[in-house]
Amino acid sequence: MRMRLMLLGGGSALGQALIRLGAEEDIGFLAPRPPETGWDAASLTELLDDTRPDALINLAYYFDWFQAESVAESRLQTQERAVERLAELCQHHSIVLLQPSSYRVFDGSRVTAYSEKEEPVPLGLRGQALWRLEQSVRAICPRHVLLRFGWLLDDSREGLLGRFLQRAERDDALYLADDRRGNPTPVDDAARVILAVLKQLDCESPLWGTYHYGGHEAITSLSLGQAVLSEARHYRSNLVEDIAPQAHAARPDAADEPQHAVLACKKILHTFGIKPRAWRSGLPSLLDRFYRHG
């Protein structure tokens, strides 16, 4: 890798997966420790003025964007301003910006898979913030790659998967929507995709734009929960026996979570040659890490 790579959010679950995978291929990252209050416009300005990498992967707010149950509007606004400043700095210093985004930019009304050509209509505060953030990056920093991911699954205790597994040990009954669909995407797979994109950008291929990626085999959240429980029983015997189906409209997060969140991944395949990987194959190692660290 000729490019000097900077990774913001190296301590996040996806950041750690990216560092692990990069190390296997002798690819290293500058991964600066964030200030105590987190990255903001001022600290980002000082950082990039001093270091000036060739490419920057922004996972600084990974947990809030992809794993948190909810995020305060004021916090999202601060992050938006920071990303806008980051885009300005990348443009000023000729730094390639790889910015993750999410299926949340869509409202979930489309039954078929969303392509990159579909117009985003985000539902909740987080989806709206991600959409505004995408627009800032496009307008300010032409040399960018926006990667929209499906349902990201990681091994953090407080993340989407961790909360589910803790409820499975604690609660007598679990409910998940049997009419809500998406692409589960283990973080190791997401890291593989980011690294594959970086490798081609390292060859000076000007493949800027927006791309979708989600694990192979779209599934309902109910079926995903059942698959996770089946694998988790190798580690815990006290898990809830079964999950009851519930309509998407009856779920407490129905106003914020898109009912149909399946992403079409043809563009990233045709442009970068990145094939979707079966998410089921990533579950064993994901749960092994979760229970080993827990």
Automatic annotation (TrEMBL):
Organism: Ectopseudomonas guguanensis
Gene3D superfamilies in UniProt: NAD(P)-binding Rossmann-like Domain, UDP-galactose 4-epimerase, domain 1
GO biological process terms, semicolon-separated: dTDP-rhamnose biosynthetic process; O antigen biosynthetic process
Pfam families recorded: RmlD_sub_bind
Residue runs in coiled coils: none
UniProt keyword Translocase present: no
Cofactor(s) required for function per UniProt: Mg(2+)
Keyword annotations from UniProtKB, A to Z: NADP, Oxidoreductase
Catalysed reactions listed for this entry: dTDP-beta-L-rhamnose + NADP(+) = dTDP-4-dehydro-beta-L-rhamnose + NADPH + H(+)
E.C. numbers: 1.1.1.133
Annotated ranges, domain RmlD-like substrate binding: 3-290
Similarity comment: family membership: Belongs to the dTDP-4-dehydrorhamnose reductase family.
Protein name per Swiss-Prot or TrEMBL: dTDP-4-dehydrorhamnose reductase
Enzyme class, first EC level, given as a word: oxidoreductase
Single GO MF annotation: dTDP-4-dehydrorhamnose reductase activity
Note on cofactor: Binds 1 Mg(2+) ion per monomer.
Keyword Metal-binding: no
Function: Catalyzes the reduction of dTDP-6-deoxy-L-lyxo-4-hexulose to yield dTDP-L-rhamnose.
Record's GO cellular component terms: cytosol
Pathway: Carbohydrate biosynthesis; dTDP-L-rhamnose biosynthesis
